[in-house]
Amino acid sequence: MKGRTSGVVLVVALLACWEASVRLGIVTSTNWPPFTAVLAAAWHGLADGELVTVIGSSLYRMLCGYLIGSALGIGIGLAIALSRPVRLTLEPAIELVRPVPITAIIPVLIFIFGLDDPLKIVCVAVATFFPVVINTIAGTGAVDPIYLDVCRTFGIPRATTIGRVVIPAALPFILAGMRTSLAVALVVTVIAEMLAGQQGVGYYLISMQYALRAADMYGSIVVLTLTAYLLNRLFVWWEGRLIFWSRTRELEPSA
Amino acid sequence: MTRAGLMGRVPGALFVVAVLAAVEAASRTGFFNSAAVPPPSVVAGAFAGIVTSGAVVKPLLQTLGLLFAGYAIGCTCALVLGILMGSFRRVYDLFEPLTELLRPIPKPALLPALMLFLGLGATMKVTIVALAAFFPVLINAVQGTRSVDPTMIDTGRTFGYGTAAILGRIVLPAAAPYYLAGMRVSLAIALVVIVVAEMLTANGGVGATLIDMQHEFQVRATYGWLTVLAVTGFSLNVLFRWIERRLTFWSPSV
Description:
Order of helices and strands of chain B: HHHHHHHHHH
Distance between the termini of chain A: 25 Å
Number of strands of chain A: 0
Helix content of chain A: over 70%
Largest interface: A-B, 58 and 65 residues
CATH superfamily of the largest domain in chain A: MetI-like
Strand content of chain A: under 5%
Radius of gyration of chain B: 23 Å
Oligomer: heterodimer
CATH topology of the largest domain in chain A: MetI-like fold
Mean pLDDT of chain B: 92
Helix content of chain B: over 70%
CATH class of the largest domain in chain A: Mainly Alpha
Number of helices of chain A: 10
Distance between the termini of chain B: 25 Å
Radius of gyration of chain A: 22 Å
CATH architecture of the largest domain in chain A: Orthogonal Bundle
Structural class of chain B: mainly alpha
Largest sheet of chain B: none
Low-confidence stretches of chain B: none
Structural class of chain A: mainly alpha
């Protein structure tokens, strides 16, 4: 915390410049509301419940897709990591599909799933899947062979070894993948809502842009960013409780 | 490649072929609605048509041009700032709160705002790509620069290296695997973002073409253009990994 003074001063100074640029008439544009008006719009949106509803509906779709994608990622990742035939069969297909930009798949998914909830849930599930599956494979592969040898020496059944040794040892990796995916999931939800349908914060942003309600648009970006930040903090907290023994505690998600 | 290595590829290839064959059969027999999921052979034909007719050239060049312009700007800014933040405590303290504030913004949410300010053309797209590419590289540049062994820097100093030599001959090579890992993540994000920016602006490029085809319910063409982007994404990834291996051949990947 110490030594951050200069940085906080910089942030405050930039916001003050923003505010002053409008109040003093240096910039006069309907696209450039003063910072305080943006905060006021965010506050009103939250207080009258409009933004809460909009972001809540986005979060609902996001979480559905996120849970499906994470479950598939962990399941398939474990299968690949634990069985050589499964790895040889599935891994090339995953490596083939993974670099395809998720946004490119959306138009095709519209043909299959329409414009509403199923489309967005599938998009999020697909985007969530890849970081989780990759990290699950890496984490399971990184389990210290000595642990496995010890299990074998003591004649512990394979299922027990997997459940009590392999999965806990891989958990920090799996959770790191899920943390990356969480940020990706929110981004993909917003993108899918911008491109299709009439729900959620993505659609709200676009409609505020068309309506030239700049303050409301920035206000919803502020609230959305706050949501992303809180989701990440919540996940980090949960992660810390779940893998309290793990020493690698690093903050590095990005979207 | 060894014989065993080749044999190891057989199940993977068979699986991909089997999935394509199953989709082909399901679509031909009407198990899948072929208006939503055309047979892969038809998609391959559409893709071949797009490529051989030359229709692919203009949109793809536009998309790649904007992608690389934005990516280069974003990576350069992030590397410069990240190396400074990683090297000097004061620079870190000055910019850390600002970056922590801006980093969680879902970047595509800024698209509507940027469209108001910068219009629907190249400037807006280059800006959003640069913004999206910036943060992963910045985080890795800070961490990578900090991870350089101080002994190496001290040794350089003992042998009379100046700041420029320490930076160019010790820090940059030692931290390169981190920088490149960040840039690889950013490249994937940049492609996602340029496509969505093009889709929202209908102003040329592969993304715009793709969404046009979808709006016109040209199912085969939509799948064909998706294949164009899939091949692009795959090739960019392979190309980057090749460059990464050549530049940091001594490093087991980070």
